[in-house]
From TrEMBL:
Belongs to the OmpW/AlkL family. SUPFAM superfamilies: OMPA-like. Gene3D superfamilies: 2.40.160.20. Residues 1-28 form the signal peptide. InterPro entries: OMP/PagP_B-barrel, OMPW. GO terms for cellular component: outer membrane. This is OmpW family protein. It comes from Pseudohoeflea suaedae.
Length: 222
């Protein structure tokens, strides 16, 4: 066998090996794509949510005054859409009530109002992969809180808390029991400081709520 023929044979073998490798890689990619194509991008969770606001705020007209707020537990629904295995957007929906207290405010001390709160929150999440059934994630986004059914009590004759935007940070995890069902634990920090007024606008201030939202519940991936 001459040298040229040996070189031609080796070249043909290398080409054949390369084509086979490309076919194998393409087949593996096709299988991976089919697996992910069968996995719905939609996920829902139902949680029990603890709302724990910071006890901070003020009445502008009373030096040294402070505001405090009641904690609450409420049901909450969230809807998640996965753009990729790692990137997703989550919208949480729920409503709760809160009582408002004045502190260090002289004759105005005590409960001064109550309100219902609707705080839809949208976050962009990064989901970590490679941990099996344990699926941790982090997120950041925006909250818009609406206050309704506001009622003044105690020293106030009326109260108006303004709807407002706030930033949101999030960390949590799902532990998947099978392809569809899992359990979830989630913590969010909302930076929420609405302005408020009362008694026909003669009293004003800022309610520094900045609540923690601590939730646990059930996950379902379609």
């Amino acid at each position: 066998m001459n040298t040229k023929f040996k070189a031609l044979l080796l070249g043909a073998s290398a080409i054949a090996f390369g084509v086979a490798a490309l076919q194998t890689t393409a087949s593996a990619a096709d299988i991976n794509d089919r697996i992910h194509a069968d996995k719905s991008p939609w996920q829902v969770r139902v949680r029990a949510l603890g709302v724990v606001p910071e006890d901070d705020g003020n009445i502008d007209q009373i030096a040294g005054s402070n505001l405090a707020y009641s904690n609450s537990v409420t049901p909450e629904l969230d809807i998640t859409y996965f753009f990729t295995d790692n990137l997703a957007a989550e919208l949480i929906l729920g409503t709760t009530s809160s009582k408002i207290y004045a502190e260090n405010a002289g004759a105005a001390n005590g409960q001064v109002g109550k309100t219902w709160i609707l705080p839809p929150t949208l976050t962009l999440q990064y989901h970590f992969t490679g941990f099996g059934a344990f699926e941790p994630y982090v997120g950041a986004g925006v909250n818009y809180t609406m206050f309704f059914d506001q009622e003044a009590t105690g020293a106030l004759t009326d109260i108006d808390i303004e709807d407002t935007f706030g930033a949101a940070l999030q960390v949590g995890f799902d532990y998947m029991l099978d392809e569809h069902w899992g359990v979830n634990f989630d913590v969010k920090k909302i930076f929420l400081r609405p302005d408020w007024s009362a008694n026909g606008g003669t009293l004003t201030g800022k309610a520094k709520l900045d609540p923690w939202l601590i939730g646990t519940g059930i996950t379902y991936r379609f």
